[in-house]
Amino acid sequence: MSLRLRGTWVPAIVVLAVQAMALLGVLALGTGTAAAHASVVATDPIDDSVSASPPARVSVTFTESVTISAGGLVVRDGRGDRVDDDAANAKGTVVSTGLRPDLPNGTYVVTYRVLSADGHPVSGSFLFGVGSGELDRSLADTGSDRLWDIVGDGARALLLLAALTAAGVAFFLRFVHDGAEDRWRLIPFVRIGTMVAFLAAIGAVIAQSALLTGRGAGASTDTDVLRQVLRGDLGLSLAVLFVGLAVVHLSTDLGSPVVGRVLALYGGLAVTISFALWGHATAFTPAWLLMSTDAVHATAAAVWLGGLVGLWMVLAGRGPEDVTGSARIVGRFSALALWTVLALVVAGVALTIAGSDASWSALVSTTWGRLILTKAAITSLVVVIAALNRRVLVPSFVGATHDAPADAARHHRRLLTTVRVEAAAIVVILVLTGVVTNVTPARDVPPASSGVTTTRPIDAGSVRLETRPARVGANTVSVTYTDPQGAPLDVGPSLTIEFSLPAEGLAPITRQTTALSPGRFEYEGREFSVPGTWTVTVAARTGVFTESRTSFEVRVVP
């Protein structure tokens, strides 16, 4: 290897650094707290409720089956001591644990950490009280997994980018490149990419361990935690990935073209298939079809990205003076790119339909859908550029072998510019893909609700109840009293609101709120902890011995 070629690690490092900067830039835009597949639909006791006697068990119900990994279900008292029986279990969509007998009056904090069907951690907490006193809300678990969500997103995006770059460039070297001396400019992309992918995989495992236990990076040093993290689909995915990366790396070290091609092909397939073995596709139905589609999608992306990086380095290194050699490489990749782009688009459309249940409204109204639409827009731009390359620039470049030097240089510059743009766009697409893997698919996001508003007549006029957003969790309840002319009706300084769900046998939960202005009240709380048709009763004192009670039915969705 000449002295000039020994410096070829520099461009590889620079390009990969630019890719990392693009990754960080996309992550910095933020997608909110990462949302996993499963979400809570009910808790027992109800969040923020107070009962006269202590419950025997605590449970959390999710939208889909979950498993207890390294986290589980923990209940603590006001001093931080555990009061559960340390025997939490998961049955289908319900996770529950028993409590110690004769719990004293006070506030208790329930914390849950489970694993959803697609391998993503789900965590949260809620309060309940025993006795007749108010809840001590200062005990609420304010800890946030936001940092580890970002680390997990970043690690997965970097893993996807580095691994597909390594596999794609290895394929380009063995099946598209002409074997000239400038192959040494491309080999560092394979070797650095495999090393970065390996380190990113370790980062993903550390983030997964932290999210499943709430114990930070130190959890990954616990062999029991690691066993639980790697026991399922994630462990299988990483095992296949590491074998594939090792084979891809080895393909650059062998002189035999036949053996090198075999290693580059099958090692690259192992890398791309590994991404289909863990994540959203494993939770879709039928799993085998969606996993196969996901593998095709990743394979096409690797071949396209690797080819663009390879063309970039070849065209930038050889210059317009070696049009003949470059033209042969460009021609080979152009023929390959047609089928690669077709496979990428078809697989992407299939995955989008599966993830959204073919619902346009689900795409435009969810984080997952907006990310997918952003990917589709960028991909469309890249497809247009690729079509321009294939129909105009590539033929003109291949034909430039007979052109004057000035014309050959012009064709060379144009093609190099479009290749750079394509490569940059695909990097952004892959970064978005890494983020999408940790966002709830559109079809699994609970239906949106803008709220429920109902008006009922009373003796002195009417009362209007407005509930926003009428979904399980935090809600705002607004009550307005008016006289027959529509003017505010003063019904006193305070209002009693009762929440009950007769179909589930949930007795009324009573809350008090004070007037914001004559006849106008507002209350915020988490009483709607179960989907269904709730009965909300408002009671206002209209006299010393009289009370106006009005009941409403409020449909609460998950």
What is the element layout, followed by pairings?
Blueprint: H1 3-6, H2 9-29, E1 40-44, E2 49-51, E3 57-62, E4 66-76, E5 89-91, E6 94-98, E7 106-116, E8 121-130, H3 146-175, H4 187-213, H5 223-230, H6 233-251, H7 257-274, H8 287-318, H9 323-356, H10 360-365, H11 367-398, H12 405-436, E9 452-458, E10 461-468, E11 475-482, E12 494-501, E13 506-517, E14 520-525, E15 532-541, E16 547-556
Parallel strand pairs: 2-8
Antiparallel strand pairs: 1-3, 3-6, 4-7, 5-6, 7-8, 9-10, 10-11, 11-14, 12-13, 12-15, 13-14, 15-16
Helix pairs in contact: 2-3, 2-4, 2-12, 3-4, 3-6, 3-7, 3-8, 3-12, 4-5, 4-6, 6-7, 7-8, 8-9, 8-12, 9-11, 11-12
Structure summarized in a few sentences:
This protein has 558 residues and is α+β, with helices and mostly antiparallel strands.
What are the defining features of this structure?
558 residues, alpha+beta, Immunoglobulin-like, eight-stranded antiparallel sheet, four-stranded antiparallel sheet, 12 helices, 16 strands, elongated, disordered N terminus
Note down, in words, how this protein is organized.
This protein folds into three domains: 3-24 and 147-444, no CATH class; 45-141, Immunoglobulin-like; 452-556, Sandwich (Immunoglobulin-like). It has helices spanning 3-6, 9-29, 146-175, 187-213, 223-230, 233-251, 257-274, 287-318, 323-356, 360-365, 367-398, 405-436, and strands at 40-44, 49-51, 57-62, 66-76, 89-91, 94-98, 106-116, 121-130, 452-458, 461-468, 475-482, 494-501, 506-517, 520-525, 532-541, 547-556. The longest helix has 34 residues, at 323-356. Helix 9 (323-356) runs antiparallel to helix 11 (367-398). It has 558 residues and is of the alpha+beta class.
